[in-house]
Fold this sequence. Notes:
alpha/beta, 5 helices
Amino acid sequence: MHPTHHQLPIRAAILTVSDTRTQADDHGGQRILSLLKETSFEIVDYQLTKDEPLDITKFVKHWCLDPNINTIIVTGGTGFTPRDQTYDTILPLFEKEMMGFGELFRALSYEEIGPKAMFSRATAGSRNETAIYVLPGSTNAVTLAMTKLILPTVQHFVGELNRL
């Protein structure tokens, strides 16, 4: 029998990557925060950082070593502008990449925004038994990823990462 993990407590850290946003106008990060609260998941930390690889890496590595955090959601910096460095920074940190997350996200995005969905480099993966999601910065993209992909499956993902 396959184990179910739907009662597993989720303890999340949120990182918004932006050169311009503050917590007051971080609509994507605030949307993640509110959706996690609505689902009764715990928010352990919420930070904003510039789109600088060393800063992004510092947060992700630190949180992956924190036993109180089992999920990291990063928003912003996933596009193709020269400053968009989130995907390129986090991808090498993964021990395993969840290829299907980005594929499904882009397929669902295509239904909403058409072919521009292919410009998203949304992805997910794991490190140190921690689930890591990398999302675009737009509130619509965050809402789509959270409601259709992350919230319905994050407990399963974390459960699988911690299964012996």
